[in-house]
Each structure stands twice: as structure tokens, then as C-alpha cells.
Automatic annotation (TrEMBL):
<comment type="similarity">
    <text>Belongs to the universal ribosomal protein uL10 family.</text>
</comment>
<keyword id="KW-0699">rRNA-binding</keyword>
<dbReference type="GO" id="GO:0005840">
    <property type="term" value="C:ribosome"/>
</dbReference>
<protein>
    <recommendedName>
        <fullName>Large ribosomal subunit protein uL10</fullName>
    </recommendedName>
</protein>
<dbReference type="InterPro" id="IPR043141">
    <property type="entry name" value="Ribosomal_uL10-like_sf"/>
</dbReference>
<dbReference type="Pfam" id="PF00466">
    <property type="entry name" value="Ribosomal_L10"/>
</dbReference>
<comment type="function">
    <text>Forms part of the ribosomal stalk, playing a central role in the interaction of the ribosome with GTP-bound translation factors.</text>
</comment>
<dbReference type="InterPro" id="IPR001790">
    <property type="entry name" value="Ribosomal_uL10"/>
</dbReference>
<keyword id="KW-0694">RNA-binding</keyword>
<dbReference type="InterPro" id="IPR022973">
    <property type="entry name" value="Ribosomal_uL10_bac"/>
</dbReference>
<keyword id="KW-0687">Ribonucleoprotein</keyword>
<dbReference type="InterPro" id="IPR047865">
    <property type="entry name" value="Ribosomal_uL10_bac_type"/>
</dbReference>
<keyword id="KW-0689">Ribosomal protein</keyword>
<comment type="subunit">
    <text>Part of the ribosomal stalk of the 50S ribosomal subunit. The N-terminus interacts with L11 and the large rRNA to form the base of the stalk. The C-terminus forms an elongated spine to which L12 dimers bind in a sequential fashion forming a multimeric L10(L12)X complex.</text>
</comment>
Length: 166
């Protein structure tokens, strides 16, 4: 079997994973311990993120003709790919969290909803809260005036009830 035939399934696997993904983040993973890597992979998996190490040449072939094509310029050294189909911020957010503990772990670049982001863009995206957090904040801000109004009504009722008791 020729070498090309062995590489085609890997290129197709990468192409299938990035096709229609909400977020694709390229990360340089050198200098991470096995314990840290295992912990990071577990958290990524729980968030629905696929994290895998591929050869740069394989990623280069898979990126051609896709929105991820601009990532080809960063394919040097030890790179891994974090892909998420639903949450656009999850890969960048989780990887940035671990990059704080491991200085050699570095966010390189990414494509979020078919838009290319360089290192600074991906790091800025990592600071955006998850969808659930944003919905929680929205719900809290909607409930706050109602809750305050209910407290005021309750205090008025208590004052009038206290006056009637005297």
C-alpha cells in the first residue's frame, strides 16, 4: 500500500472534523506534562471539544480550500487541533486556562464561525464567557427589577400590617 493511501484517511478525518465546526483552534502543545495534558483533554472532552495531535502536513492538506486555509501559515513545530461543533468559545477558553499554568502551551491561531483570528484574537475570544454563563447573566438582569419590586411591595405590606396591629 502506498504512503499516500495511508495518509488519505487522516486528511479526510481532519477535513470532516473542521467542516461546519463553530470553532477550530490551533495550539502549540510543547512543554506540557502528561498529567496536565490528561486533565486538559478531559475538560475539553466534557465541553464537547475534539482535541487531537496531527502532523502539520496532514493539517495543511486538510485546510486547503476551507475557511481554515489561513491556519496553514502557522503549521510549524508541535501543533494540536481543538475543534468544537457547537460552542464557539469553548476550545479557546479551556486552552487559555491551561496556558496560564503551562507557559509553553500557546494558542497560535484559530477560525471561529469561518472567520480567521490570530493569536491576539483567539486570546480575546478566550475571555468571552460561555453561552450558559451569558444566558445566566441575562436571566439575572431580567429578574433583578422584578425581585426588587417584590421586596418593596413586601416591605409596604409589612409596614401597613404593623400599623394595623398597633
Amino acid at each position: 500500500m502506498a504512503k499516500v493511501e495511508l495518509k488519505k484517511p487522516v486528511v479526510e478525518e481532519i477535513a470532516n472534523s473542521i467542516n461546519g465546526a463553530a470553532s477550530v483552534v490551533l495550539v502549540s502543545y510543547k512543554g506540557i506534562t502528561v498529567e496536565q495534558d490528561t486533565k486538559m483533554r478531559k475538560e475539553l472532552r466534557e465541553a464537547g471539544v475534539t482535541y487531537k495531535v496531527y502532523k502539520n502536513t496532514m493539517m495543511n492538506f486538510a485546510f486547503k480550500g476551507t475557511p481554515c486555509e489561513e491556519l496553514c501559515q502557522h503549521l510549524e513545530g508541535t501543533n494540536a487541533l481543538a475543534v468544537c461543533a457547537e460552542d464557539a468559545t469553548a476550545p479557546a477558553r479551556i486552552l487559555a486556562k491551561y496556558a496560564k499554568d503551562v507557559p509553553t502551551l500557546e494558542l497560535v491561531a484559530g477560525v471561529v464561525e469561518d472567520t480567521y483570528y490570530d493569536k491576539a484574537g483567539i486570546e480575546a475570544l478566550a475571555k468571552v464567557p460561555s453561552r450558559e454563563e451569558l444566558l445566566g447573566k441575562l436571566l439575572g438582569s431580567i429578574q433583578s427589577p422584578i425581585t426588587n419590586f417584590a421586596r418593596v411591595l413586601n416591605q409596604i405590606a409589612e409596614q401597613q400590617g404593623g400599623a394595623a396591629a398597633e
